[in-house]
Amino acid sequence: MDNRYIAKDRSTLDLGESVKYHIIWLLLFCLYFKNYFFMPLQHHAVSMSKLILFLSMVFSCVIGILTRWKRCLSYHAIFVDLILGGGGYMVAAYFPYYRMMIIVILLLAVIIFSLFFLAVFCGKINGIRIFRIKNVKRRRFIFKNRFLKALHISGICIAYLFLTLFLRVAYNRIVYSGIIRGDNNHYKMQSQDSSYSEYGLKHNLETIEKIRENARWKPLSVQEKLNVLQCIANCECHYFGLPYEVTVVMDDLEGETLGDYNDYERSIRIDREHLEKDDAHQCFNTILHEMYHCYQYCLVNLYMKNSVTDRRLRVFEHVEEYIEEIKHYKEAGNSFESYMRYYNQKLEEDARKYAQQTVFVYYKEIDQLQDVYEIYQGEIIDSIQ
């Protein structure tokens, strides 16, 4: 065979080194992925999802080594194989949450893949199209070399497309401490000339009433549910008079935790399974519970800034107890005793009481406003007739 048609070996690693470094970086990548990017597949258990992720990564690495052997084994190739394996899993796991972005990535991947393989089959050698070369052995050899080259280059392009999904998830993790966040585009900071009514239930009924009944709540997408909870959080911010916004995000929380509040980031995380599977009342209770934690932290911060005299105000009645519990906060463990220590903390007791009472206040106001709107609409129809 003419050496002109044999692909040059541009490898910087031999086969043994490539296999060794693939295994090392695969294990490190899996550990990193599990901590920052892992999301269970829908309708699959966590253990099964982890197995699928691992097999996806192994498959990508094996195919990468076989197609690049004696051609271009390198550290960059290892990086591409890991991103392709992890990215393929992320496309499946994150599709319900980043639908539009993933559709665009897949469309671009198909276009890139198609263009490179069209170039393979429609290419020319010395002015003759490859499929018209009469020597069958030579034609197959050229097709094989060009096919592997197209597979390598298109794989690199697709890996970098998948990398944009990694960056998007990483950005949300770092900035919002969650996978996706609620829509907060219409949020306005409270000012002297703004009233609570502008941000209250009356002006947000169309959004918040979706959580009133399970029949309306269950069909909503995760993003739509987050938007409803974000709207409730905004109303609660203005009800409490908080001078800052609170971001609501979804994340995979550990154990039986349904939600948590981070005062440093001023964000509320809602557990993914809780949001996807539990009924409207439970999710409503969770967001109100966490918003009261936000109010408690605000009281603590204000208490610490005030003089000894001002700290006697009734609004600070339980704040010293809050401060002590925050310093020595008791997490809900697996045992009954540890759970009861968590349950009986004043921080949790007050937040639980507020949420249980306030959710029914919302229900009552929603029902009353819906009745008012029905009467108003009826009057309009009567006037037209």
Ordered list of secondary-structure elements with their pairings:
Elements: H1 15-36, H2 46-68, H3 75-94, H4 99-122, E1 124-125, E2 128-129, H5 136-176, E3 180-181, H6 205-208, H7 214-217, H8 222-240, E4 247-251, E5 259-262, E6 267-271, H9 272-277, H10 280-305, H11 319-327, H12 336-343, H13 346-384
Parallel strand pairs: 4-6
Antiparallel strand pairs: 1-2, 3-4, 5-6
Report on the architecture of this protein:
The chain has 385 residues and is mostly helical. The chain has two domains: 174 residues, no CATH class; 205 residues, no CATH class. 64% of the residues lie in helices and 5% in strands. The strands form two sheets. Strands 3-4-6-5 form a four-stranded mixed β-sheet, with helices on both faces. The radius of gyration is 29 Å and the shape is elongated. The C terminus is likely disordered.
